[in-house]
Amino acid sequence: MNALISVSDKTGIVEFAQALHALGIKLLSTGGTAKLLANAGLPVTEVADLTGFPEMLDGRVKTLHPKVHGGLLARRDLPEHMAALKAHAIDTIDLLVVNLYPFEATVAKPGCTLDDAIENIDIGGPAMVRSAAKNWKDVGVLTAASQYPQVLAELKADGKLTQATKFALSVAAFNRVAQYDAAISDYLSSLNFDAGNNTPPRKLFPDQSNSCFVKLQDLRYGENPHQQAAFYRDLAPAAGSLVTAQQLQGKELSYNNIADADAAWECVKSFDASTQAACVIVKHANPCGVAVGADPLAAYSKAFQTDPTSAFGGIIAFNCPLDEAAALQISKQFVEVLMAPDFSPEALAVFKTKVNVRILKISLPADGILGRNAMDIKRVSSGLLMQTADNHELQLSDLKVVTQVQPTPEQLQDLLFAWKIAKYVKSNAIVFCKGGMTMGVGAGQMSRLDSARIASIKAQHAGLSLSGTAVASDAFFPFRDGLDVVVDAGASCIIQPGGSMRDQEVIDAANERGVAMVFSGVRHFRH
User: Fold this and answer.
1) Which of 10, 81, 251, 284 is catalytic?
2) Same-domain pairing of 406 and 353
3) How many structural domains is the chain composed of?
4) Comparing C-alpha atoms, which of 80, 79, 47 is closest to residue 66?
5) What is the helix (H) or strand (E) element at residue 337, kind and residue range?
6) What pLDDT does 49 receive?
7) Which pLDDT belongs to residue 368?
8) Residue-wise DSSP of 142-182
9) Fewer CB within 10 Å, N- or C-terminus of the chain?
10) Could you give the CA distance from residue 508 to residue 480 in angstroms, rounded to a whole number?
11) CATH number, domain with residue 280
12) Is residue 96 a contact partner of residue 169, using CB atoms and an 8 Å limit?
């Protein structure tokens, strides 16, 4: 058996080659990999000696040769193929170990030049991988160090790889080549070419988008039982994102569970866990209760108080480890999904008998930098809508007071809190808040007036007074009537983007009603 090894990332390759040699497998290799293996005392034949043709053009041409590709592509079950190999003195290559030039890592570096990118486009590697993967029945192809242990285990046990393993390796190889080519296409499609500039500026949106995702699991069904669904993740998911979650207990996640859990997690992790515990309760993609407190129990109790009816069967997320006290309170209600960076043993014990509650642990990065999508993508009929993600974080210094009445320091904090929540509520969004908790949430209505009325009604049903509350509107008030509705409900200060043709009319109304109003200058539509 012959194995050809040519790797850019040499992690574990010496040990792997040593194990192959111990199994009596002949080693072939190229350039730097061959030197590394030889220095480790392994007998290795350089590809240049195999082909009788030296590496040339700074290594651009070394494996593009019939003695390599003939050995990979020849079907062992076809006598004419084997006769052709014999006639041309070509040996079969039974195992190919290749990982590709680090193109993705190269273009991710600040200041990467076009020349650097081009030189890190692998040609011979993908060609060999495709040849071996096409001939998977006869050739095992490895494209990642993580595959080494399984392959070695099978070779040691049976002296060969199973057909199932070789097919799986072939699929992984074609996937890797597809990912590699997609990265090259994305990069080159994003360049604004300038013959005199070796670091050409990049377009925000490339001329062709080649997104690649890896399936995590098939789901029982989609939004409705008659729809089929699956859950995928990015090739390199950001730390602290939902796809990195570890499920500690509970039933399999559904399509709607995942969508709602993502909404809850993205909202709760926007709060700084080093200052206060935060709790977000989501129902049907909208926060129905959000609060901060001294500990998880305080935060949950306030969040639940906002809308106990909607919280039934909700998705609950915390930005801090969950302790027993909060777990005991939560366990009194029906919960679909519970998320936190960690859970105390006592908290997990509380839910031992609640076997259907899905408990997710999502570790947050130690440096506090939370990964967020750089782009949002929405499917439309035969196309995509792509935009930069709404990652804007409003600061106190960004606020513009536009009324005669100035907001107090406490009101300013309530306004910022309300604005943070409005960002995660479906448009049209109206959010009443006070003292670090939501008091009423109106979401997803065609009329902003109706959203305001619904928020007020929900507060009444929960027995909450809206007197002295802060209100956030995700977009401007087009007329004064929206402002009148929230002030009639009890609001004493309002935050909105501004930008309406009738801003002055709304400002005049606020002055007439004696309330403070600030403009954020930023809209937060969420459709």
Assistant:
1) 284
2) no
3) 3
4) 47
5) strand 335-340
6) 82
7) 61
8) E-SGGGHHHHHHHHHHHSS--HHHHHHHHHHHHHHHHHHHH
9) C
10) 9
11) 3.40.140.20
12) no
Do 153 and 23 lie in a common domain? Answer: yes
Chain centroid to CA 54: 44
Residue 134 annotated to the active site: yes
Provide the pLDDT for residue 486. 96
Q: Distance (Å, rounded) from C-alpha 285 to C-alpha 1?
A: 56
- Considering the candidates 26, 81, 134, 354, report the single residue annotated as catalytic: 134
CA atoms within 13 A on the CB side of 332: 10
Token pair in block for residue 104: 């993705």
* Residues 345, 465 within the same domain: no
pLDDT of residue 369: 63
The per-residue pLDDT for 471 is 97
The segments of the chain whose pLDDT lies below 70 read 367-370
The whole domain housing 242 covers: 238-361
Predicted local confidence at residue 366, as pLDDT: 72
Asked whether residue 228 is assigned to any structural domain, the reply reads no
CA distance 380 to 387: 13
- Give the residue ranges of DSSP H helices in 354-440: 409-422
302 is annotated as an active-site residue: no
The pLDDT value given to residue 367? 65
- β-pair partners for 317: 280, 339
- The dihedral through the CA atoms of 358, 332, 283, 226 has a sign that is positive
CA distances from 92 to 55, 74, 338, 462 (A): 21, 7, 55, 75
Which residue in this structure is represented by tokens 């084997």? Answer: 82
Mean pLDDT of the chain: 93
Distance (Å) of CA 86 to CA 64, 71, 83, 90, 187 = 20, 11, 5, 6, 43
Structural contact between residues 113 and 199, judged by C-beta atoms closer than 8 angstroms = yes
